Amino acid sequence: MASRQLQVLSALDGAKTQRYHFRAIVVAGMGFFTDAYDLFCISLVTKLLGRIYYADPSSPTPGSLPPNVAAAVNGVALCGTLAGQLFFGWLGDRLGRKSVYGMTLMLMVVCSVASGLSFGHSPASVMATLCFFRFWLGFGIGGDYPLSATIMSEYANKKTRGAFIAAVFAMQGFGILAGGVVTLVLSTVFRNAFPAPAYQVDAAASTVPQADYVWRIILMLGALPAALTYYWRTKMPETARYTALVAKDAKQASLDMSKVLQSEIEAEPEKLDEIMARGEDYGLFTSRFAKRHGLHLLGTATAWFLVDVAYYSQNLFQKDIFGSIGWIPKARTMDALEEVFRISRAQTLIALCGTVPGYWFTVFLIDVVGRFWIQLVGFAMMTVFMLGLALPYHHWTTPGNHVGFVVMYGLTFFFANFGPNATTFIVPAEIFPARLRSTCHGISAAAGKAGAIIGAFGFLYAAQSQDPAHVDAGYKPGIGVQKALYVLAACNLLGFLVTFLVPESKGKSLEEMSGEADAEEGNGANIVRPSGEQLV
Q1: Share of residues in the chain with pLDDT > 70 (%)
Q2: How far apart are CA 355 and CA 422, in angstroms?
Q3: Were both Cys, which of 219, 439, 511, 525 would link to 292 (CB 3.0–4.6 Å)?
Q4: Which pLDDT belongs to residue 260?
Q5: 3-state SS string for 356-369
Q6: What is the pTM for the complete model shown?
Q7: How many alpha carbons fall within 13 Å on the CB side of residue 319?
Q8: Where are the alpha helices (DSSP H) in 41-66?
Q9: Residue 250 phi, psi (nearest 5)
Q10: Rounded CA gap, 304 and 308, in Å?
Q11: Contacts of 433 (CB under 8 A, 6+ apart)
């Protein structure tokens, strides 16, 4: 099989780990650092936005965002992300990975800054402006998913490809952690500079005017890491697989990779012509694609959808969950900046102890254990720990038991990231043909964001107490946090079952997985698990 493959692709598959691999990880990874920071930092400041723009000093409780505003602020960036994943995923297969890569980053930089500059004459106009820029911020973030994954998979060697793609995605954990740390630092600095009484002591004075700067600075700082890597993105050459297999330019592919690998690579235009003539140039909406990759796309998209329902509902509404179990004090007992501090401290602790370690366990073990088993065990353990939180929920809410709840809650994040949250990002970049790789990854990722939107909007309403006396202002009674956790456990169990549709790609070249390595009938589609089970 290797003899029929282009030398440039064989050289990439067999290349030792080199400096360009780490450069690609950093350049692509900083985009994901920014993605996570921008998507999740909003959850740290929504309570503050409510106190600033929807305050009623005569109310016994601090101001909060109305339900429709809270849903929009939390979810609008996810809607933009979904649209961006589909659009830029498709564009990456049409114009090339590199051509589109800089666009997404610049859009993220501009919209991060603009989000912090959301001004208006009324609360409604401020929120509308904020939502507008966060939608387009999400649109840019969406493009980063298929492009970063595809670029890294096409640059990597087949022995450590999983670890390289996982390392890019692992920067998401550092982005979440950075959001918490930045918020901790800023809230501490402003609290010390502008002390304020608790809301129940003096409602009007509990939110100092300078608090309006805090959320703006937090959002605007998301532009910094993306801006720092823009130059390096523009200098990355197009991937050899796109140049050779999609643009059909063997000479340019060999020239680009000769510079990257610092070795002479033969162009082999005749062999490329032979491969193109022997290959099948089927499109996405064809029976041939459905036969070869239909179940694979269904598996990657559905698994990503299910994990994101659970992952984003947990991440975006940690503050509500921690408040419901009493880990964060009642809002009326704190001033505005103290509430921000306590929410960010809780999220930082979870990120540090559960989220970040999970990502790096995946990096170190994915090319040893394999994608299939990491995803399967991850979904299984998330189901177990969700049920462990839900079944004795009233036990966890009693004083003295909060630490146990936080530990188990952190373990669900650990197994999400040492599990399906990472593998659903990696596998779609490995198993589809080069001409459809970015598009199929974008479709899978967009399905995930559809799940995230359901998690974000649905959890906001569903987790409301069943007792009308304990429902947040403006909301109707929901099913409560306990039953919401049961729903999330069910999603994880379904994800466990869907995993059996996804092929194992450990140790195989991209062309072996996609069927491009051999045009003989059926050979490219016979994907076999380590156990010997043939899938399709």
Answers
A1: 91
A2: 11
A3: 525
A4: 80
A5: HHHHHHHHHHHHHH
A6: 0.88
A7: 22
A8: 42-53
A9: -65, -35
A10: 6
A11: 245, 293, 514, 515, 516
